[in-house]
Structure formats: structure tokens, C-alpha cells
Write a structure and sequence with these properties.
Two copies of one chain form a homodimer. The first copy, chain A, is elongated, with a radius of gyration of 18 Å. Chain A has a domain of 100 residues: Arc Repressor Mutant, subunit A (Orthogonal Bundle). Chain A starts with a helix and ends in an 11-residue tail after the last helix. The first copy, chain A, is built from six helices and two strands, in the order H-H-H-E-E-H-H-H. Chain A binds a DNA duplex through helix 3.
Chain lengths: 156, 156
DNA sequence: ATTTAATCCTAGTGATTTAATAGGAATTAA
DNA sequence: TTAATTCCTATTAAATCACTAGGATTAAAT
């Protein structure tokens, strides 16, 4: 029941992009440096975000990435699902409509458990918008600015 | 973000035990047969449940397993945590008190996301008692009894 | 036009975890 | 004494994870 580094790094990368994006595109190398994530690996993560329509890539020199939508229209759920795939705790056709029907659905009791876990996870992450994290980040960075500079800059 | 077969099989096994236990202990071979799970593998799962005080083992001939407590005092959360370990989506000292403190806690924004996911999962599974599943199971089995016998008996 | 800075794309790899299988030791009712 | 059962540990094939590596493509800047 753990997220992989895809979800952890990827969410941090999108947040970094949202916080540090002005008018211009942000190069992935900058995000990788700030976040301490390998550039090559981050490329693979951002590819998933691009495929899901969360960011747009701009090729060529001075290129980079920008959010495809305003930060208050992107939920943490959108981001995590893009990176990790479906967030439900089991692969079960009763939870995911696309799947082929389960022949045991009639006598399956545990599916109620999986459905409730799945709904609680998705409701939670869909209720947090990227803009909420941007706001929180600005608050935290303002406080950090008042601290000594020998504070560790490493990130979870 | 998926449960492993430990959690899936293990929850089914405990439910099977709860449904099929009278006064006497239930042999693991019976549970394994009914649930279509390898006996050897199930042994390893039930060992975790025993260690967590959810079931008691009775050795020797005519031995088996019994619930260590009434089914309405055992939550699905207790069972899943025994089988899967901590259910939080990341290993983060801000979520798990035992861990060594995180040096980045002050500037970490995503920890709020992880905490909210963790709480929602744990609140959900702690709110479902084994007895709830037993009740549901009896209802489902009563209905299944009215159906033709050529229905699939395979389980999710 | 050339260079440079960047995204885009795919293949490979060591480490770890998963989902078992296997087999023997210990215990106890019959 | 036998048979049925839990208890315990080692091994393993397959999958997944978390990268690394390197080349192709694109477009701004010179």
C-alpha cells in the first residue's frame, strides 16, 4: 500500500513547476536540481504527466514545461493517478468500470471493503488542488526565509 | 498503491474462519481448500495474524485456529495492518511516530497530502468490523443458496 | 547556417519484493 | 504409536522498481 517514487517525486515536480513558473517555460534540469531528482528519471515521470494533459512540453532551446491548466483546476488526484495509475487498493471489476466483469461478484464480500477504501482515497486526493499546495508552499518558504541558512534544504 | 495478495488472501481467510468457526478450531487446510489458496502460503499469512494477536493457533491433531477475540472487536484495519504492515502511502516520520525525525519536515509540503491519505485509509478500515463482513457474508450466502448450483464458486 | 539548449524516446540493468514451493521439526488427540 | 496438525525456515521464478544511458528531434540564439 505504498506509493512509488513516481508519485512522490512526480507530485513534488509538479508543485515545483507551479511555484516556479512565471510566463516562461521551466526547464526540467532546473526542477531536477532543485528537487534533487535525477534528470533522466524525471523525464520519464513528466512524460506521464504530459500524456495525461497536466503539463505541456515546449521543445527546443529555451523550452521547458508549463502547466496545461491553472493550478486550481488540477487536483492531487489527477496528478497521482497520472503517475501511479488507478489508486484503488485492488484490481477489481466492481471498482473499475472498464474491466471485464468478475464471475464471483455475487458472492464476493470483500469487494465492499475495497470499494470503501478506494472511494476514501480518491475523495481525499480529489479534494486537494495543486493551488492549495502552492499556497502552503509559499507560506512555508516565507517562514524558511527567516531561518538561518545552514538549515538542510533536502526534501522528503 | 495496491494491496498484495497477503492482504487480500489474509482478509478472506480471517472472514472464512469467522464464518465457519463453531466451538472447535478450524484447520488451515479447510480454509485453504474453501478459499483456493495454497496451504503453505496461507501458513505464512496466518503467522502474521497470530503474531498480531488476531487469531490463536491450537497445535496437534484436531488443532487449528480460532479468533483471539469476538468478531465485533476485530477491525478490518487490524487485519490489514497485521498482513501488510502500516497502511500509510509513504514512509514518513511525520506520519509514523516511531520513525527518526525528518530533517526536511519544516519545508515539506507534500506531507500534508500523505497525512490526509493515510488518515482516510485508516479511518475507513478501522470503521469496518469483522462482524460486519460476517453479517454480509451470511446474507450473500443465503441468496446464493437459492441460485442454481452451476454458479461459479471461485472467489475474487 | 551552426551551435546550443532543450524535449522526446527507448533500451537496458541491478536490487528488491512478491508469491509462492518445499520440507522438516514439534505438538497433541485418538 | 500413529496421524493430524501447527510451526519454522530456506529457496526461487517472476515481476516491479528506480534508475542509467544514449541517441533523435526540435527550435531559439548567434
Amino acid at each position: 500500500m505504498k506509493l512509488t517514487t513516481r508519485g512522490r517525486y512526480g507530485l513534488r515536480a509538479v508543485l515545483d513547476l507551479a511555484v516556479n513558473s512565471g510566463d516562461e517555460a521551466v526547464a526540467l534540469s532546473q526542477i531536477a536540481d532543485r528537487q534533487g531528482i535525477s534528470m533522466n528519471y524525471l523525464e520519464q515521470l513528466i512524460a506521464k504527466l504530459k500524456k495525461s494533459g497536466i503539463v505541456n512540453g515546449i521543445r527546443g532551446a529555451q523550452g521547458g514545461y508549463i502547466l496545461a491548466m491553472p493550478a486550481d483546476e488540477i487536483s492531487v488526484g489527477d496528478i497521482l493517478r497520472a503517475l501511479e495509475g488507478d489508486l484503488s487498493p485492488v484490481d477489481c471489476s466492481e471498482l473499475n468500470e472498464g474491466d471485464t466483469p468478475c464471475s464471483s461478484a455475487d458472492i464476493c464480500v470483500t469487494k465492499y471493503v475495497w470499494k470503501r477504501i478506494s472511494d476514501s482515497i480518491n475523495d481525499t486526493v480529489d479534494g486537494i488542488m495543486l493551488s492549495d499546495l502552492v499556497d502552503e508552499s509559499k507560506k512555508v518558504l516565507a517562514e524558511a526565509g527567516n531561518m538561518q541558512d545552514d538549515q538542510p534544504k533536502q526534501i522528503c
